[in-house]
Amino acid sequence: MGLNYSHSIIDQVKLYAIINGQPLPCPLLKATYMNNINVWILLINSDNTKLNMYLLETLDLEFLVPYQNIENYIFIIEGCNMEKT
Question: Would you kindly state where each structural domain of the chain is located, as residue ranges?
Answer without folding.
Answer: 5-80
